[in-house]
């Protein structure tokens, strides 16, 4: 740096937390402070001399504040290469000051659009242009400029040494680019969801910029690094007790909460099933037991008892507040997680006696939110994305056998169908009396899947309903279900041998219902 050059710092802040302490420290070091309107008033109110940005630009804030910092002198002050004699000559020629510290956080766009009553015009006014440009300029020139985007960075900046300053500036530059990317994605997602884009269209470019929510001890296995990134804070259940969540815990909790969603039930069954409390148990992302009962305690006990051996060390979730009775029943099992929309004080006291049990409270609407949102996963170094097509025709069911379902069988078929969509293909679910009795997931052979589910159901398969996530390509799968004692079966139609499967149902005297859609889960 040439002698006689006075260092400057530019402040433009929506979140002014700690800004007065940082600015005072810079002022004490002889740094000239420049600031935009509201930030300058804040600093001056705290007794810190701060110049208006228009002292650099020669222009006032224009167009209701839309243009304040967008000027060659401001960006020249940030972007010029301090090691270039040509740059230094231009700087002197055009009387451009030096700005070596940029302290900027952006208009609160995300908080604004999170309001239910926000209008499009309000959202647009919260799209920051100058701030994003300042962050990008300062981050590009991190070799000479420190860019601070969050109050959490201020202390490290003030205690930087010549030995670590470059590495710190580089880290802050990365954080700045991450922030601008996150900001742009929030804007594009809001505009796409505003109703001006057809809801049937998937994004033309899938931009995933998710802030770090939590670093994890390790991934699926101890030798793997892992972290959890989350776009919406309201999706993260609140932990009330227990050990920190692991990578596998988060996957299992996601699978369990999805089982609480009832969005697949048709209108003729949805309201009936809504009267019941649902409880679900998952182990290694595979459902072990699901039950619907009149009370949360009964639902939890029956879901656990559906496959008590598999439930050991599993995750339990319910869509009702857990009371003392339910907590006492849960305390008798070894579980990794208990999740619910709420816990009575007595229930929480009981569960907290189990030192390592993770007790999680989630928003009442979270299961259905998870079911509706875009689903993404990695593959071949890229990302696959899918959601439910809002223009798809409603699912329909047809009784194709001579024998029709009884009222109880209809309810069990609907419940089994609602559960099987969460079971990895080939998936089979056997249900009796509103409780899963046998579940089999991930088989390559559908007949084997039926046989395994029936073996787990045992005598409870007699008079039960059986759901298959895909069609029966041959009659043998249906024959295996009937041999176990199932009297009502639901599966998608569409096999070239549907007629053979229907004939087998009629020969065996069981009910067969065809759905118009399959629900593979890979």
Number of folding domains? 3
Biggest sheet, open or closed, and with what strands and sense? 6 strands, mixed
Number of strands: 21
Distance between the termini: 59 Å
Fraction in helix: 25-40%
* Global Rg: 30 Å
* CATH superfamily annotation of the largest domain: Methylglyoxal synthase-like domain
> Which structural class is indicated by helix and strand composition?
alpha/beta
CATH class division of the largest domain: Alpha Beta
What is the CATH architecture descriptor of the largest domain? 3-Layer(aba) Sandwich
Instruction: Determine the number of helices (DSSP H or I, runs of at least 4 residues).
Output: 21
Spans with pLDDT under 50 lasting ≥5 residues? Answer: none
**Could you state the oligomeric state of the chains shown?**
single chain
CATH-derived topology of the largest domain:
Rossmann fold
- Strand order, biggest sheet? 8-13-12-11-9-10
Structure characterization notes:
The model has no long low-confidence stretch (mean pLDDT 89). The chain has a 6-stranded mixed β-sheet with strand order 8-13-12-11-9-10, with helices on both faces. A 6-stranded mixed β-sheet has the order 16-21-20-19-17-18. Helix 11 crosses helix 17 (366-372). It is elongated. The chain has 522 residues and is α/β, with parallel strands linked by helices. The chain is built from 21 helices and 21 strands. Helices cover 38% and strands 20% of the residues. It folds into 3 domains: 7-192, Rossmann fold, CATH 3.40.50; 240-366, AICAR transformylase, duplication domain (Cytidine Deaminase, domain 2, 3-Layer(aba) Sandwich), CATH 3.40.140.20; 397-515, AICAR transformylase, duplication domain (Cytidine Deaminase, domain 2), CATH 3.40.140.20.
